[in-house]
C-alpha cells in the first residue's frame, strides 16, 4: 500500500484500519444522503455517530493526530444532534457532508503519510465550535515540567481532551513538593462503564497529562474480568 512503511510492525493493522475507514465512510455518506432525502429515524444519526467515533478511535490508536482532532469535534456535534441538543436543519446536514469530505481527506493523508496544513478544515471546525457553544481555542502553549511547577494544584478536569462529558471519576489522591521545587501529584482515574459509549478516549487524557511533565502510570486491573467474560 502506497505511503505505508513495509518495515512498520503495525503496517498490517493500519491497512485493516484504512479498509474499515473506507467502509465506514461509504456507510456514513449513504446515511447522510438518507437524512437529506427526509429520513428522520434517530437510528440513522446514531449510525453516523458510530461511524465517526470508530474512525476517531482507530486514528487515536495509531496517533493520527490531525484526524483525531477533527473527528473529535465532528462526533461532539453528532452527539448533540442525537441527544436533541441541536436541531438537524438543512444547513447542518450540508455541514456534515463537508465534514465527511474533510475527514476523508485526512484519512487519505494519514494513509499516505502526508502532513496537512495547520488550517486544514478550519472553517468547518469553527462552525463546529459555534454549534457546540465554545469559542475557537487559541494555539496551546508548550508546557514543560519545570514551568508546570508554578501551576495551580491539578484539577480533575484539567487533562480533558474531549467535551467534559466523560463518565468517569478522577481524584487527586495526594500532592507534594519535591526537593527540586517541582510539585508532584498522584491522580486516580476510574472510568465507568459508559466511557466509550460517550465517545471519550482515555488515551488522549494520558497524552495531555504527559505533556505537563514526567509521568508514570500504574494500572489496577484487579476488577477487570477475564477476556472470555468481558462484555
Structure write-up:
With 231 residues, the chain is mainly α. The chain has two domains: 11-132, Four Helix Bundle (Hemerythrin (Met), subunit A) (Up-down Bundle); 147-210, no CATH class. It is built from six helices and two strands. It has a two-stranded antiparallel sheet. Helix 1 (11-36) packs antiparallel against helix 2 and helix 3 (65-82) packs parallel to helix 5 (122-132). Residues 139-167 have low confidence and may be disordered.
What is the structure about, briefly put?
With 231 residues, this protein is mostly helical. Helix content is 46%, strand content 8%. It folds into two domains: 11-132, HPT domain (Four Helix Bundle (Hemerythrin (Met), subunit A), Up-down Bundle), CATH 1.20.120; 147-210, no CATH class.
Write the element-wise H/E pattern from the N-terminal end onward: HHHHHEEH
- Shape summary: globular
Give a count of the beta strands, DSSP E runs of length 2 or more.
2
User: For this structure, what is the CATH class of the largest domain?
Assistant: Mainly Alpha
State the end-to-end CA separation: 34 Å
Secondary-structure class: mainly alpha
- Low-pLDDT stretches are 139-167
CATH-scheme architecture of the largest domain: Up-down Bundle
SS strand fraction: 5-15%
Specify the biggest β-sheet: 2 strands, antiparallel
Q: What's the alpha carbon Rg, rounded to whole Å?
A: 20 Å
Amino acid at each position: 500500500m502506497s505511503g505505508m512503511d513495509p518495515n512498520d510492525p503495525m503496517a498490517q493493522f493500519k491497512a485493516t484500519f484504512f479498509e474499515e475507514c473506507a467502509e465506514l465512510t461509504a456507510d456514513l455518506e449513504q446515511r447522510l444522503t438518507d437524512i437529506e432525502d427526509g429520513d428522520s429515524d434517530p437510528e440513522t444519526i446514531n449510525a453516523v455517530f458510530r461511524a465517526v467515533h470508530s474512525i476517531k478511535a482507530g486514528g487515536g490508536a495509531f496517533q493520527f493526530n490531525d484526524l483525531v482532532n477533527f473527528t473529535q469535534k465532528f462526533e461532539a456535534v453528532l452527539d448533540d444532534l442525537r441527544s436533541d441538543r441541536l436541531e438537524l436543519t438543512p444547513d447542518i446536514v450540508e455541514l456534515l457532508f463537508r465534514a465527511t469530505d474533510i475527514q476523508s481527506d485526512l484519512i487519505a493523508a494519514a494513509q499516505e503519510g502526508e502532513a496537512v496544513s495547520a488550517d486544514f478544515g478550519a472553517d468547518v471546525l469553527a462552525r463546529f465550535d459555534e454549534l457546540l457553544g465554545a469559542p475557537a481555542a487559541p494555539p496551546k502553549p508548550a508546557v514543560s515540567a519545570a514551568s508546570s511547577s508554578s501551576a495551580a494544584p491539578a484539577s480533575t478536569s484539567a487533562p480533558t481532551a474531549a467535551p467534559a462529558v466523560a463518565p468517569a471519576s478522577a481524584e487527586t489522591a495526594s500532592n507534594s513538593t519535591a526537593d527540586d521545587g517541582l510539585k508532584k501529584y498522584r491522580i486516580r482515574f476510574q472510568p465507568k462503564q459508559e466511557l466509550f459509549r460517550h465517545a471519550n478516549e482515555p488515551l488522549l487524557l494520558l497524552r495531555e497529562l504527559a505533556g505537563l511533565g514526567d509521568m508514570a502510570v500504574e494500572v489496577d486491573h484487579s476488577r477487570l474480568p477475564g477476556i472470555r467474560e468481558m462484555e
